[in-house]
Amino acid sequence: MNIFNFIKISLIILIVSCNDNTKNLAYVGPIEIVNKDTIFHKIPNYPFVDQYNNQVFTDDFLGKISVVNFFFTTCPSICPKMNNNMVKIQKYFDVNKINLISYTVNPEYDNVEMLNDYATKINAKSNWFFLTGKKENIYSIAKSGYFISVKEDKFAPGGFLHSEYFILVDKYGNIRSSFDKYGNVKGVYDGTNDREVSQLIIDIKTLIKE
């Protein structure tokens, strides 16, 4: 599966830290200044259906930290590695501390039954949500919410191209990220890279303490 680059626009990444201390996590996304208040990018509120056939809205995940990725159940390439690393994150944290959210990019095939079977096979706990729904909602939230590219491609393995990235979202619905060794905002985490996943675990711990 081809790897999409994280969408980089000059206004997309904003570093916010106390006294420029890069030990704090950055906010990622465009901002607005309203009455001298800084309004950070927030994930838009769309309806989806989880593997238990419950309707859920994006805002339902507010109040807990979330780790997000995009996949599909018949993916023959990067998805197994990504979700193995999601399992690693799941084992590391109590179910009350974080949510894991996996959006299918193939909602026409990945119905509730397929997602439930998939979740059962990988021993997903109750805080891991596999979401399907209207294709336009999934693709829209990927692009405008998480700044991730997804699309159908008949030449790609499995027929879909999507990102290998994990996105870290705080309990307020803001995308957060740490910095690389050069002091640049990472923005996202490579879900196929064990070192990146280890850094994500560290950053989740940081958010829990906020």
Plain-language structure description:
The protein is an alpha+beta fold and 210 residues long. It has one domain (13-209): 3-Layer(aba) Sandwich (Glutaredoxin). 24% of the residues lie in helices and 25% in strands. It has helices spanning 79-92, 112-121, 135-145, 194-209; strands spanning 13-14, 26-28, 31-34, 37-40, 47-49, 55-57, 65-71, 98-104, 128-131, 150-152, 160-162, 165-169, 175-177, 189-190. The strands form four sheets. Strands 1, 2, 7, 8, 9, 12, 13 and 14 form an eight-stranded mixed β-sheet that branches. Strands 3-4 form a two-stranded antiparallel ribbon. A two-stranded antiparallel ribbon has the order 5-6.
Short account of what is shown:
The protein is of the alpha+beta class and 210 residues long.
Secondary structure blueprint with pairings:
Blueprint: E1 13-14, E2 26-28, E3 31-34, E4 37-40, E5 47-49, E6 55-57, E7 65-71, H1 79-92, E8 98-104, H2 112-121, E9 128-131, H3 135-145, E10 150-152, E11 160-162, E12 165-169, E13 175-177, E14 189-190, H4 194-209
Parallel strand pairs: 7-8, 8-9
Antiparallel strand pairs: 1-2, 2-13, 3-4, 5-6, 7-12, 10-11, 12-13, 12-14
